[in-house]
C-alpha cells in the first residue's frame, strides 16, 4: 500500500488517501534490505575509522559518528557539505584525480591524503572505496584510516636504514652479510676493495663458491661456529689466493652472520719487520756484551801466551804449544771483532770517500780471490756523490758480499758491482726501521747464483745463521755488513730469486762539503699526470703490487692488476683500453715478464711496456732475457723514478718497435 495522511487545520489526521496493491513480497525484500542496512550501519558506527557512502555524483548519503568527532563537525553537516574541505589542499588534486579515475573505470578508489583533525593538525589517511550497484543506483562505500603514526614510524625506519647504509658504506672496515645458506645478501664498498671483487659478481652468490679456497679453512670453521653457538667470533687468518691477512669479527644474527674484517697484511708485515729488527737488535746487544768481555779474556790469553813463548826459548815443544794458543786466540779476536761490528759497537773511522775509487782499487783483488770461474764486472756511475764512511770496513763488506756471491755460484757465474746515486723517499723510509729519507750513494753487488729462499731471506742478517756446511760458513758475513752499514747511518736491502740470483744493495748517506741536503720529497717533486690512463700492473708479490698500485694511482693512472702472465694476457684481451703494460720480470707460473711482453705485443703491437725487477738494471739486461732497448725500472723504486720511466715508455712505444729490443 502506498498512501499518505490528510491533515486538517488543527494538525490532526483527518483521512488517509492512497492505493492498495499486493506488495507482500516486495515488503519482505524491503525489510530485509533495511535490516541489513541497519546491521551495516551498526558495524560502521563501531569501527575507529571514517566510514562514508556516496553516490557516483559525489553526494554523501552517510558518514559515521567517528568521522564527525574526528573532524569536529556533525554527521548531518558532513553529509550536506561533503568532507573534501577537510582534505589538505596540497593533496586534493591528486585525490580527486584518483576518484575520477575510479568512477570511470569502476575500479576501487585508493588514495592517501591528509585530513584536518578537530585539534587543527593534519594527519595522513589511507582512503578506500568500492562501488556497489543497487536498485536505486550505484553507491560507493568508503573508509579512511588514520595512518599518521604508521607513516612516521616508516619514515623514521627508512631514515634509520639510510643512515645505517651510509655509515656501513663509509667505514674503513669491510662488511658483508651472509644468510643461512651462506649467500651474500649485503656487502659494503670497502669489501670490494679488500676482496678485489665487484658487488654485482658476489651478491646472491654462495661465499664458498666464490671463494673456494675458504672452504674447510679457518674462515668456514669460524663462521659455522658463530652460527651454531650463536656467539661472536674473532680471529685472524690468511686468505692465500689474495695473499692477504685478515682480522675478522663475525656476529650471528637471526638471518645468518654479519662479518666485519680488515686487511692487516701491511701492518702484519711491519710488525714482523719490527720484530725482526728488534730481534737483531737484542742479538746485537747480547753479542756485543759477550764480545766485549771476550776480548778482555783473549787479551789475557794472548799476553800470557807471549810471556810463555819468551820463557820457553826457541825450538822446544812448549814453544809450538804456545804458538797454537796464540793463533787460536787471534782467530777468536777476529771473530769477536765481527760480533762487535754486528753489534754496531766497533770504532769506525769514517772519511769522505769516492766509492768508485775504492771499488776500482779492490777489483783486482776480488778477481784473484774469486777464481777464474767467476766473471767480475763493474759499472760506475758518473758524478757519484761522495759519502762519509770507514773505508776499511767498506772493503770488508764488499769482500763479504763477493765471497757470498762466489759461494752461491759453485759452478761459476757472473758478479756485478755497480755504483749509483739514489734518493730514498719518505714512502720507502716509512716502510723500514731506522731509515731517513734522503740522498744516498748505492753500492750493489749482484750474482747469478742459486738465490735465497723466502724463509731464509728473513734470517740472513741474524748472526750465526748459515746454510753452509760446518767449517765453510760462520753466519757472520751479512750481520757484519748490516751492523756496519747501520752504524754508518745507511741501509741494506737484499733481493733474491731462487735459481736466478741475488742482489745486495748498500746505501750510504751522501756527504756534501757542507753536509746538508733537502728532504727527498722536496727535491724530487713529482709533477706528473697519468690522465687516468689504464695501466696493467703485473706482479706476483701482493705487497709490492699494493705499493706499486698506490704509486701509479698517485701519479694519476688507473690500474688493473694481474698476479701472473696468464691473468695479464686475459686482461689484455678483455680490456682494450689498457694503455701500458707494467710487469715484473721474474714471476712464477712458467711465463716470465719478457715472454708476457712478447705475447702482449702480438696482441697489441703498439703497447708500451715497462719492466720492473729487484735485480739491478744491468744484471737483468744480460740475464733476464731483456734486450738492450727494454725499459727496466730497478726495485726498490721511487715514485719519481716510476713517473720518469712511464714517460719514457709511452714515448718510446710511439717511436720504436719492442721486438727489436727484446732478445
Ligand atoms: N749471494 C748469496 N746468494 C745466495 N745465498 C746467500 C748469498 N749471500 C748470503 N746468502 C745466504 O745467507 C747466509 C748467511 O750469509 P753470511 O751471513 O754471509 O754467512 P755465511 O756466508 O758464513 O753463511 C748464507 O749461508 C747463505 O745461505
Ligand atoms: Mg758470508
TrEMBL record:
Molecular function as annotated in GO: phosphorelay sensor kinase activity
PROSITE patterns: HIS_KIN, PAS, RESPONSE_REGULATORY
Catalytic activity annotation: ATP + protein L-histidine = ADP + protein N-phospho-L-histidine
Start and end residues of each Histidine kinase domain: 289-512
Coiled coil, from the record: none
NCBIfam families per UniProt: sensory_box (TIGR00229)
Sites bearing 4-aspartylphosphate, chain numbering: 584
Name by which UniProt lists this protein: histidine kinase
Keywords: Kinase, Phosphoprotein, Transferase
PANTHER family in alphabetical order: HISTIDINE KINASE (PTHR43065:SF49), SENSOR HISTIDINE KINASE (PTHR43065)
Domain PAS intervals: 36-106, 160-205
SUPFAM superfamilies the record matches: ATPase domain of HSP90 chaperone/DNA topoisomerase II/histidine kinase, CheY-like, Homodimeric domain of signal transducing histidine kinase, PYP-like sensor domain (PAS domain)
Residues covered by the Response regulatory domain: 534-650
EC nos: 2.7.13.3
CDD domains linked to this entry: HisKA, PAS
Enzyme class: transferase
Amino acid at each position: 500500500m502506498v498512501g499518505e495522511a490528510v491533515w486538517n487545520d488543527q494538525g490532526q489526521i483527518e483521512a488517509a488517501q492512497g492505493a492498495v496493491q499486493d506488495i507482500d513480497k516486495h515488503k519482505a525484500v524491503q525489510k530485509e534490505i533495511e535490516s541489513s542496512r541497519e546491521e551495516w550501519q551498526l558495524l560502521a558506527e563501531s569501527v575507529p575509522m571514517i566510514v562514508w557512502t556516496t553516490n557516483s555524483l559525489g553526494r554523501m548519503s552517510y558518514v559515521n559518528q567517528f568521522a564527525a568527532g574526528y573532524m569536529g563537525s556533525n554527521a548531518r553537516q558532513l553529509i550536506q557539505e561533503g568532507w573534501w574541505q577537510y582534505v589538505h589542499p596540497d593533496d586534493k588534486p591528486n585525490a580527486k584525480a584518483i576518484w575520477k579515475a575510479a568512477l570511470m573505470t569502476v575500479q576501487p578508489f585508493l588514495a592517501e591524503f591528509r585530513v584536518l583533525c578537530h585539534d587543527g593538525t593534519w594527519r595522513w589517511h589511507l582512503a578506500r572505496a568500492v562501488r556497489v550497484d543497487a536498485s536505486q543506483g550505484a553507491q560507493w562505500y568508503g573508509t579512511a584510516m588514520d595512518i599518521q603514526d604508521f607513516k612516521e614510524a616508516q619514515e623514521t625506519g627508512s631514515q634509520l636504514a639510510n643512515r645505517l647504509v651510509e655509515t656501513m658504506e663509509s667505514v674503513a672496515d669491510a662488511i658483508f652479510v651472509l644468510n643461512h645458506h651462506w649467500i651474500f645478501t649485503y656487502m659494503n664498498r670497502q669489501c670490494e676493495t679488500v676482496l678485489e671483487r665487484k658487488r654485482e659478481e658476489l651478491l646472491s652468490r654462495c661465499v664458498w663458491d666464490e671463494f673456494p679456497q675458504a672452504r674447510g679453512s679457518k674462515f668456514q670453521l669460524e663462521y659455522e661456529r658463530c652460527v651454531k653457538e650463536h656467539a661472536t667470533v674473532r680471529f685472524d687468518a690468511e686468505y692465500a689466493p689474495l695473499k692477504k691477512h685478515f682480522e675478522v669479527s663475525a656476529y650471528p644474527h637471526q638471518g645468518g652472520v654479519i662479518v666485519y674484517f680488515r686487511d692487516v697484511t701491511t701492518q702484519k708485515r711491519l710488525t714482523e719487520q719490527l720484530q725482526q729488527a728488534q730481534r737483531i737488535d737484542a742479538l746485537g746487544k747480547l753479542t756485543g756484551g759477550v764480545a766485549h768481555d771476550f776480548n778482555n779474556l783473549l787479551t789475557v790469553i794472548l799476553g800470557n801466551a807471549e810471556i810463555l813463548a819468551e820463557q820457553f826459548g826457541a825450538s822446544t815443544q812448549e814453544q809450538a804449544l804456545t804458538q797454537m794458543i796464540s793463533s787460536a786466540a787471534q782467530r777468536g779476536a777476529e771473530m769477536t771483532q765481527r760480533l762487535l761490528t754486528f753489534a754496531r759497537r766497533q770504532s769506525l773511522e769514517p772519511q769522505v770517500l769516492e766509492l768508485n775509487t775504492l771499488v776500482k782499487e779492490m777489483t783486482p783483488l776480488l778477481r784473484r780471490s774469486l777464481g777464474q770461474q767467476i766473471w767480475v764486472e763493474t759499472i760506475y756511475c758518473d758524478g757519484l756523490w761522495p759519502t762519509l764512511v770507514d773505508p776499511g770496513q767498506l772493503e770488508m763488506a764488499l769482500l763479504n758480499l763477493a765471497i757470498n756471491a762466489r759461494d752461491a755460484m759453485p759452478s761459476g757465474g757472473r758478479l756485478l758491482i755497480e755504483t749509483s746515486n739514489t734518493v730514498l723517499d719518505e714512502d720507502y723510509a716509512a716502510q723500514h726501521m731506522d731509515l731517513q729519507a734522503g740522498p744516498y750513494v748505492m753500492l750493489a753487488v749482484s750474482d747469478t747464483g742459486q738465490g735465497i729462499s723466502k724463509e731464509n731471506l728473513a734470517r740472513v742478517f741474524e748472526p750465526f745463521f748459515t746454510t753452509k756446511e760446518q767449517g765453510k760458513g760462520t753466519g757472520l758475513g751479512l750481520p757484519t755488513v748490516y751492523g756496519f752499514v747501520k752504524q754508518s747511518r745507511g741501509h741494506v736491502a737484499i733481493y733474491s730469486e731462487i735459481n736466478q740470483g741475488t742482489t745486495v744493495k748498500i746505501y750510504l748517506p751522501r756527504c756534501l762539503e757542507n753536509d746538508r741536503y733537502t728532504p727527498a720529497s722536496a727535491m724530487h717533486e713529482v709533477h706528473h699526470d697519468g690522465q687516468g690512463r689504464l695501466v696493467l700492473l703485473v706482479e706476483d708479490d701482493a705487497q709490492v703490487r699494493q705499493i706499486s698500485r698506490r704509486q701509479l694511482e698517485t701519479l694519476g693512472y688507473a690500474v688493473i692488476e694481474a698476479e701472473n702472465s696468464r691473468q695479464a694476457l686475459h686482461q689484455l684481451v678483455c680490456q682494450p683500453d689498457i694503455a701500458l703494460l707494467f710487469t715484473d720480470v721474474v714471476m712464477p707460473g712458467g711465463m716470465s715478464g719478457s715472454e708476457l711482453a712478447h705475447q702482449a705485443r702480438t696482441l697489441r703491437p703498439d703497447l708500451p711496456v715497462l719492466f720492473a725487477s729487484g735485480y739491478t738494471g744491468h744484471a737483468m739486461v744480460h740475464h733476464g732475457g731483456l734486450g738492450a732497448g727494454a725499459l727496466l725500472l730497478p726495485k726498490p723504486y721511487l715514485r719519481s723514478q716510476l713517473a720518469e720511466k712511464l714517460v719514457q715508455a709511452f714515448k718510446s712505444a710511439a717511436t720504436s718497435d719492442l721486438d727489436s729490443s727484446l732478445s
